[in-house]
User: Fold these one by one.
Assistant:
Number 1:
Amino acid sequence: MADDRRYDNPELEDTELDDADEGSPDGLYEHFRFVADKGQALLRVDKFLVERLQKASRNRVQQAADAGCILVNGKPVKSNYRVKPLDLVQVVMDRPRYECEIIAQDIPLDIVYEDRYVLVVNKPAGLVVHPGHGNYDGTLVNALAWHFRDTPDYDVNDPRLGLVHRIDKDTSGLLVVAKTPDAKTDLGRQFFNKTTRRQYVAMVWGCPDPAEGTVATNIGRSPKDRLIMTTFPLDGPDGKHAVTHYTTIEQFRHVSMVSCVLETGRTHQIRVHMQSLGHPLFNDARYGGDRILRGVQSGAYQAFVRNCFDLCPRQALHARTLGFRHPHTGEEMDFTAPIPADMSALIDRWRTYTAGISAKS
């Protein structure tokens, strides 16, 4: 049972968590905290919490316990755990705290595949995944609530269901949603065991040398700037193990299109790893890619790059493929989302620029 809890939240596996989704180092967010009194009589934790949480039913608390979201003294407990004097009881989730139930909103979804167990969606850039500070609605989860509004077995507030992994607000591409508790547990196990298949396409500054390779470091929050992540030595105590395999697809003189295949899924992993190689993602403001880092100093070139920034006003990163074993049938399934219009236009612009330079040579 403990292992299943672990897979229900496999370190919030995926690459790029958006600003609103970044949380504690272990990927869990504390929503509520209670310390039992010295005179606390033995009491089931589900009843203990129902007495202290507004609008929380006992069934909802039991669901949270089943998903490993009820901790006592730092460890997950079942709903029949008996609270003792001075016990620290926490309610944690894999998303930030917000002050209201998730509202169903009619936000268009690009659904790539759906059956009674899973849904695969192609998320556009600019769409936040989870409600959180500054983004209480208008998110992918609000859109899912609308999509499942007539599905009685799908409760968008149930932590045993929903997104198995996440990507950054300004990253586009594929995500899988679990529609049953068993599906989420199984998919979580696959992410945890690194048996899923995920390939991203990115535009980066410069031309990686060698053209393909593997980046293996620890990744953790920067001690100098808590808003960004950074690399740490693999054998050190800081950060978490992260591995990215990259291959250069095409070079455009001053930038390159690369493929990144993930073994792990740490916050901002691709963005941090490519920056660590000296090749930040094109127009990635957080990691320095929104400046002109390669090329000539002519006014025409400067204007060309600024035009490219306007063309793709975000970090140029797209979750292109996603593969997993179906949690019910066992069938291996692979999905592909085409490169979105803004990145396609960016690639075409650089391809035209490179061809023009070559023609003049």
Number 2:
Amino acid sequence: MSGVLLESIADSNLPKADIRLAFFDIDGTLLGKDGGYTAATADAVRRLGASGVYTAIASGRPHYAAEFVAREFAMTAPGVVNTGATIFDFQNQSLCYNAELDADVAMQLWQSVHKSGVYYEAYAGADYFIDPDAGFSASALNIAATHAKHMRVGPKLRRFDEIIGVEPVTKFLVAVDSDEMPEFLAQLQLQFPNLIFATAGIAEQPSWRFANIISASATKRNAFNWFLQRYNLEACNVIAFGDAQSDVEFLQMAGIGIAMGNALESVKASADYVTKPVWEDGVAYALQRLLSARN
């Protein structure tokens, strides 16, 4: 059963929750198919922050690819990035928390994906990398170019055996065209059951699937609880927005979880409410409705 459509609810029946903290996914939630955002969405988030509600990013992106969103949306709290593996304070340019992959496990993961021919990246420190010896297919190179465009940051070329065990690796990203390799990510997850696989997609290419692969200690629940403790809040004080499977934990932990109209049906089913799609300013619509109900 899906979350309730906000458009189907009368103003008098909307929740009058005491919202103090709002989490926003980036791709497919704040940013649309082209990787851009509308003035209506940005203004709505800025107004929310200016009203005294803490506003924060919750994204699979690394901090350096989320920073422009934090700045242009005037986010007022640190961001949850790398799918929960990192909490980054954009205002002070500092790490609040970072969970790294075990070096031996990261090496095994690299060896598995390297043999497969799928597209993959490793994230370490303030950069992300692709292996010059990977021999990516034309399809994988297309994913690489599109991903870099949306990230607004390009990868660096570096052999992974010069990174793993030398620098702390926070995340692997593996991407496939599910029309070509429908079972690959599921099979990879079976090989590494003790890692967290957070899957997502992009609206521009519906058949593509991305898996952010992080340490088992890098749970979204840990990140969520970090915010509750920092700001002395309860879950009922939190609202969360998202569109991907990787957003489900925050949608379920928050007092109010809102799935975008462009979300997968499984994501909508995990949310309390479903707003309009990102291309119809779903975040702005939901905030306008819910903040009006709060007053």
